[in-house]
Amino acid sequence: MEKKPLVVVNGLVRKDAIAYLKEHVDVRQWTEKTVMPRETLKEWLVDADGLWCVRPLDVDGDLVKNAPNLKVIAQAAVGYDNVKIDELTAAGIPYGNTPGVLNETVAELAFTLIATASRRILENANFVKEGRWAQRPSNIKGFDLSRRTLGIIGMGAIGVSISRRARAFGMTVVYHNRNQRIDDKIHKTTYMELDDLLATSDVVCVMAPLTDETYHMCDEAFFKKMKNTALFVNVGRGPIVDTDALISALKTGEIDYAALDVTDPEPLPADHPLLDVENCLIVPHIGSYTDRTRYDMSILTADNIIAGVHKKPLKTCVNEEVNYKKPEMDVESALEELKKAGVDLADFD
Ligand SMILES: NC(=O)c1ccc[n+]([C@@H]2O[C@H](COP(=O)([O-])OP(=O)(O)OC[C@H]3O[C@@H](n4cnc5c(N)ncnc54)[C@H](O)[C@@H]3O)[C@@H](O)[C@H]2O)c1
Ligand SMILES: O=C(O)[C@H](O)CO
């Protein structure tokens, strides 16, 4: 009987997705609660055909250099800032991520942060819980979203989903990207240079990937260009923000409030100074964390791996240049397939 391909999983993933994977391949999974040591993973990869990557893990040429059979790496995430894509491409290894399936879920979280922060829901709810309903200070009344301007930095698939929600709340949506989109008329959105966006926006929402270019994009100068009354939201990646500059901007009133789904570092240690900042709402990187969406992301990752270990095209591949191609079907085989499917070829004469 033909040996099943071997897939290494370097951490904990959904049990239902592992069960699905095991229907197609052999699986060797790190099930400790600790992060799998890199050198141990490299040993496991010597015999592996595929890797299901679980963060934190730096995926690069060094990780795969002694993995002669490795045909695919995939991760249940759309962001891949932990992956040296060019080094995997050089090694001929396609990398699968999970774009699309999480757009609405992440956009819902981002807009929930915007709406919660704009009306100071957390603070007001805590006053009620603490029996201080009547003693609420006047400075936590928040502001209306309608007739305000949302500035999205990184107007991609998720940014567009966020803009739809903002428009439904009566907001004007402007954005900054590497390039202006061609569908602004459809989404009723306006491209702006970054400085203009910062000067114009009542809410600034970061939805960009972490790259060399976006690293610490949100620094002291960035926050100084924002309105003092503005709300800053980050759902992209933590290191896009210089955390010390954000803390200073919040404490000095350079900006009014911040709502973060991502931070630098992650997880935030219990004694981190950002946790002492009153006008900052933080949730623990939950953008895609609904059961259905995590299921969809996990199954898509499993499908990418199952395809890759059999040298079939990944459904969602970042480095398409090394993705496996569908076999060219010759005419004879195509006709044979049609006959098998019961198609009467005479109909085509
Ligand atoms: N918080 C979460 O749970 C969560 C969930 C999903 C995605 N993300 C992050 O969001 C990112 C975007 O996801 P997506 O599916 O919308 O990706 P996408 O590729 O569809 O969109 C990314 C957008 O960012 C823009 N961009 C890139 N570099 C930029 C720069 N220097 N300045 C301005 N814009 C820039 C691109 O032009 C593009 O429009 C991911 O890479 C990931 O890091 C976070
Ligand atoms: O990039 C993503 O998909 C999210 O941040 C989850 O990791």
From TrEMBL:
Xref: InterPro entries: D-isomer_2-hydroxyacid_DH, D-isomer_2_OHA_DH_cat_dom, D-isomer_DH_CS, D-isomer_DH_CS1, D-isomer_DH_NAD-bd, NAD(P)-bd_dom_sf
Which first-to-last residue range defines the signal peptide? none
- Tell me which domain of life the UniProt entry assigns to the organism this sequence originates from: Bacteria
Report any Pfam family annotated for this entry. Answer: 2-Hacid_dh
What keywords sit in the KW lines? Answer: NAD, Oxidoreductase
D-isomer specific 2-hydroxyacid dehydrogenase NAD-binding domain residues are 112-287
Read off the PROSITE patterns from this record: D_2_HYDROXYACID_DH_1, D_2_HYDROXYACID_DH_3
Among its keywords, does the record have NAD? yes
Q: Name all D-isomer specific 2-hydroxyacid dehydrogenase catalytic domain ranges.
A: 12-319
Q: Which family does it belong to?
A: Belongs to the D-isomer specific 2-hydroxyacid dehydrogenase family.
State what protein this is by name: D-glycerate dehydrogenase
Q: Which organism is it from?
A: Veillonella nakazawae
